[in-house]
Write a structure and sequence with these properties.
The protein is an alpha+beta fold. Helices cover 36% and strands 25% of the residues. The chain binds one DNA strand through strand 3, helix 3, helix 5, strand 24 and strand 25.
DNA sequence: CAGTGAGCGAGCTTCCGCTTGACTT
């Protein structure tokens, strides 16, 4: 017989709580939701008051079975899921599925996992809040209606397997809008002048002109003036300043900082954090709260006191600013703040270190600064120079942690300025004006997109990472690096009375790990904006959240709210299905000057493509795929026509055709059924036969050196030299040679050992990945009754 | 990564939020 059964959401939490509660309590986990809408069809009886069809998903059957068994043995059952909308619903589903007596069901909540908090909770049970549950049901049903009615329209009108939803479609829209802003951005140049001066005490003082100068002509004129100008210190001002630490981590801020400081993707951050959580090193990692428990605050105080001294302690209570935050948990922090380091993988150590520093810093004193500004007048000009220096008077929290910023221009490190007096005359060493350019708004990274979604109140801590993955998996968006372009800029320098003008080059616009919308993402976004403006509106979530709140407060009935949304929405769905044509982003670019045939671009069955000619003519139209990075909406007629120039036949070599084209791995030459990649400096559109032959011969020579060893025992076995050094090839499979082995010395038996060892680990890996993708292959089995 | 895609015949795909698991005797 069990005295008490407590059910929480997470197994790691269950373990911790069990310790606090003593022998009379058994604590189990529900592993999140145990019921969901039926997966087939809508799972909602639209004509029957939107009655939801709940089922227990296969992967939850075992959990439910075990809980049912325990409930039968238990005298008392406590539902201790999180104190938020989803948690309340989990408790309600548990009550129903486990057939608990409504009157006797004890619902308890706590925000902190501390002994005190839990024992207090046990003393204050309450009934399940049905209004809050209804708000969750409305949320769930609305999301299902949107997702499962709009996605199939995309299958018909754009491409199969696409998806749309309240959250993901807005994420894509943010990226598409930003990309178009960038496309339309016109960069303007201006000049930034700065001077190096010599003070009376013969020290150097660097100052920047307070305003920009637009044209090169005006800049030249200004520099000319400086030649004969007198420079004086007009004013010196000293102002105290302070900096305060950032609040402790939430899911979103952790993802942002781990991305900036450690280069983690948001998914990676969550995986590593999960490990730390499961091994008891940090508190729960899916949270929107910046709150720390009293126990944690006390512990932080002690640690700071001990490590840095009393001066550095400043206990703070942060308030969340996030829209729609539900604050069911604490902020993300180390479980034991006195543990500065933990064991584990490198990434776990790094992430823990970040969390420790951020948490500790959040309870430390402000940093105190002194900011000095020196204004310098120019006798023959209205312009003014300004030198700014910043001195740290007291480091405070900066001793431990400095928050990073997404702004790449945050480079200025200011230091101490030399002593000058008001009115002092300064000599110039040099005056320099550098041409700069206005920059388009930055592209989103995964983490900065999460930040933006959070600001809009869209998505939850548990869904940020999956949402970012979904929009990439659907092909709406790619995360990648892109090289920049060279750009010239002018530098005008005045030194020793001589003005010099030079042209320099720089690389601009290079992107690293940024999110770029693909053509399909743009087409889908435009389709949704045209037909489902309401859903992709940035305020849609905020609007429905207000109504969910009304439901939670008992002021609105959920079926009414859903009905008010669904009636007009469903009409739009039907109208769109009937009236809208295929939406494939088609653009007519013009006519081919050679044949007079029309040229158009659109999304084809294999991706974005160019079409030359029309379907209904005698001659079939020609097709060619767009290349990576080419956009339907910006490609020009000549760029599109260039795509038909490949494959190009260059001529013959050794009586065999030499053909150049572009494939999956970039531009290549084909000759005698062999492929040779073009070098970076070669252009497939202009390369000539001579150069192609050169490449072919180069490859041949390489190949001749490719075979290191063959074996008489087995003709299928080779030791080869590849791009990544020597490797073993056996029956079309390749195997790594262990480090420190001389490839030329490998015996037949050595090779077989390597092959056998390797295929063992390979088959294990394969099994694993096979299982992860199981839902896809699984669906093949006939499931009809 | 060990190589340079391509036309209907079949049924399937999809949402957002909670949470981790993983099939062998």
């Amino acid at each position: 017989m069990i005295e008490n059964l407590v059910i929480v959401e997470s197994p790691a939490k269950a373990k911790t709580i069990e310790k606090f509660l003593g022998e009379d309590f058994i604590v189990k986990s529900s592993y999140g939701h145990i019921r969901d809408l039926a997966k087939k069809n809508l799972g909602i009886e639209v004509d029957n008051g939107y009655n939801p069809q709940y089922i227990i998903p296969d992967e939850k059957k075992n959990v439910v079975k075990e809980l049912k068994k325990l409930v039968k043995e238990a005298k008392e059952v406590w539902l201790a899921s999180d104190e938020d909308r989803e948690g309340e619903a989990i408790a309600w589903h548990l009550m129903n599925v486990l057939e608990l007596d409504k009157k006797k069901t004890k619902r308890i909540v706590f925000h902190e996992i501390t002994k005190d908090a839990i024992q207090k909770a046990i003393q204050n049970p309450r009934p399940i809040d049905e209004n809050l549950v209804n708000a969750q049901q409305a949320r769930r049903i609305l999301d299902r209606l949107v997702g499962f009615e709009v996605s199939p329209i995309l299958w018909k009108k754009v491409k199969p397997s696409l998806s749309a939803g309240r959250v993901q479609s807005v994420a894509v829209k943010l990226l598409v809008e930003r990309e178009r802003e960038i496309m339309n951005f016109k960069s303007e140049s201006y000049f930034k002048a700065s001077g190096l001066f010599k003070t009376a005490k013969n020290e150097e003082l660097k100052a920047d002109l307070t305003d920009k100068i637009k044209s090169q002509k005006d800049t030249q004129a200004f520099i000319e003036l400086c030649k004969s100008a007198q420079f004086n210190v007009k004013d010196i001002s000293k102002k105290p300043g302070k900096k305060s630490p950032a609040p402790p981590f939430t899911t979103s801020t952790l993802q942002q900082e781990a991305s900036r400081k450690l280069g983690f993707s948001v998914a990676q951050t969550m995986t590593v954090a999960q490990k730390l959580y499961e091994s008891g090193k940090i508190t729960y990692m899916r949270t929107d709260s910046v709150n720390l428990s009293e126990m944690a605050l006390n512990s932080a105080k002690n640690v700071i006191n001990k490590e840095f001294g009393e001066k550095y302690v400043k206990i703070r209570h942060f308030k969340t600013k996030t829209k729609g935050a539900q604050e069911a948990h604490e902020a993300i922090r180390p479980t034991f703040l006195d543990k500065q380091e933990v064991s584990g993988s490198d990434n776990e150590k790094k992430l823990y270190d970040l969390i420790w520093k951020r948490t500790i810093a959040s309870q430390m004193s402000d940093a105190e600064l002194e900011k000095t500004s020196i204004y310098i007048t120019i006798s023959n000009s209205e312009h003014e120079f300004l030198a700014i220096g910043e001195v740290l008077k007291f480091d405070g929290f900066l001793k431990v942690y400095i928050e990073s910023s997404d702004d790449e221009n945050d480079e200025d490190i200011k230091g101490l300025l030399p002593q000058v007096t008001k009115g002092e005359k300064l000599e110039y060493n040099s005056v320099q004006a550098i041409q700069r350019f206005t920059h388009y708004p930055p592209r989103y990274t995964e983490a900065s997109l999460v930040k933006k979604l959070e600001e809009l109140g869209i998505g939850r801590p548990s869904t940020y990472a999956p949402t970012i993955s979904t929009i990439q998996n659907r092909g709406y968006v790619v995360k990648e690096d892109r090289p920049g372009n060279e750009r010239n800029y002018t530098v005008i320098t005045l030194s020793k009375g001589v003005i010099k003008e030079t042209t320099k080059t720089e690389i601009t616009g290079a992107e690293k790990s940024k999110l770029f919308p693909n053509n399909i993402g743009m087409v889908v976004n435009d389709f949704l904006e045209k037909h489902f403006d309401e859903i992709v509106n940035y305020n849609f979530t905020a609007k429905v959240e207000e109504e969910f709140d009304e439901i939670a407060n008992g002021k609105l009935e959920w079926p009414k709210m859903i009905d008010k949304f669904y009636k007009p929405f469903h009409k739009t769905v039907e109208k769109t299905l009937e009236t809208s044509g295929k939406s494939v982003g088609e653009r007519i670019l013009g006519n081919d000057p050679a044949t007079g045939k029309p040229v158009s671009v659109k999304i084809g069955p294999y991706g974005p493509m160019v079409q030359l000619g029309l379907k209904d003519e005698d001659e079939k139209p020609q097709f060619a795929s767009l290349q990576k990075g080419q956009m339907l909406e910006t490609i020009t007629l000549s760029e599109a026509l260039a795509l038909f120039k490949l494959p190009r036949e260059l001529g013959a070599y050794e009586n065999k055709k030499v053909v150049v084209s572009i494939g999956r791995f970039g531009p290549y030459v084909r000759h005698d059924a062999k492929f040779v990649s073009l070098k970076k400096e070669d252009d497939p559109y202009t390369i000539e036969l001579g150069r192609a032959i050169e490449l072919i011969n180069e490859k041949r020579e390489k190949d001749s050196k490719k075979t290191i060893k063959t074996y008489s025992e087995d003709p299928d076995l080779f030791v080869l030299n590849g791009r990544w050094g020597p490797y073993i090839s056996y029956k079309k499979q390749n195997y790594k040679i262990p480090k420190g082995t001389d490839a030329a010395e490998l015996s037949y038996k050595n090779c077989l050992d390597i092959i056998n060892k390797d295929s063992d680990s390979k088959s294990i890996k394969k099994e694993k990945t096979g299982k992860n993708s199981a839902p896809k292959t699984k669906s093949k089995k006939p499931s009809k009754k």
